[in-house]
Amino acid sequence: MSTPDLDLSSVRQLVAGAVHSPDFRRATFGGAVRGAKECPWVRVVLRPVDLRGERHVQFSYFDRTKNVTKNCRETEADGPLTELLDFGFAGIHLSTGGEEIDIRTSKKGKVLLGRRTVEPLAADGPERHNRVKDVPLPEGRADRVLEVMGILTADGRVRPTMRAKYTQINEFLKHLTHVFADAGLGSLGRPVEILDCGCGSSYLTLAAHHYLNDTLGIPARVIGVDVNEEVIRKSTERAGQLGAPGLSFACGRIGTVAAKPDVVFALHACDTATDDAIAQAVTTGAKLLLSVPCCHHHLNKKIQPVGPAAVLGPVLRHGILRERTADLVTDTFRALALRIMGYRTDVVEFVSPEHTARNLMIRAVRGAPVGEPSFVGEYLSMRSFWGVVPYIEQALGESFRRLLPES
Ligand SMILES: C[S@@+](CC[C@H](N)C(=O)[O-])C[C@H]1O[C@@H](n2cnc3c(N)ncnc32)[C@H](O)[C@@H]1O
What we know:
The chain is of the alpha+beta class. 35% of the residues lie in helices and 25% in strands.
């Protein structure tokens, strides 16, 4: 519901009311009103935090390159809040346990108010409540970003057709948080740079940006890359709609877009695009790679039951067994290549198979010795057993080949 022509003091009252309400969740301020005094911040996010048993309000101020976070006791929050409101932000979004409030100031200075009630979380009983709490981007309450992405309805329910994608992105983000500190990403002193390779409709791209910046308060810039012009056009449009600073998209092949990411994602990047994403991470020195491969055509066409692999003739005879063998062999080569290039690598199930059959994740953290002889030996033995040169070798190029003694 929208109400035109709200006055400034009502805006201040609404904001203060939300921030001081016991079920306050988040307030976001962004966009400049025409003629307002110059503001050093492109976005400011407020959320409640509990420090030493006392409720505080955390103010996160974002400019284009960094963020500054300040915590103040809730009883002392009105001063910084007034300073903030004096800048006259064009968009203010308030989120409490029971209500989502949107305050927008038009170019002509008209203040428009949109409010809608949302169901309280705990009303659904313990089972649902646990599920809500345990995932990075919970359902059961309104979330504008997930709504714009088409995943949640306005009242916070997952659209039935989006359940699998919703689960995939939540599980992916869990893996990210699990290895975040171990990869040295918690102490960069600057925003984390993430590159999402083969971003497609950008569900993961937007979700990662939202989760890190808005939920965890970790400044992060995310770039989505895809060869498909149409998905990039739509994703750019969505990012504009959300007004999310530090979120951008580029149309091009993986590896051709200039970027020096700390983290590389590849969720279901087709066939050898996964190898290109691995090469992008390695050659730019990314601290972390999270890759969930998709189809594997390259080796499927090459593996033959000849030489030492002749014994596997009965396996390669059947299409489905051949396909699965090629999948396993391809991902084993990838994991080994990453180990050789100095990444601590493991291969894990990233989500239950009911949400996608392509559910294996290669997780690699930089920081191991480069060219470890035992891994080089394993790699060469595998290559000679199968009589193939996997595409990962081509993607990694000379810096990889020179670590293989026989080349
Ligand atoms: C199956 S979709 C996955 C999209 C998204 N990551 C997701 O999981 O929702 C694969 C995407 O990779 C893109 N792609 C394939 N090869 C690529 C390449 N070499 N460079 C960039 N994008 C590529 C495709 O255009 C497609 O959008």
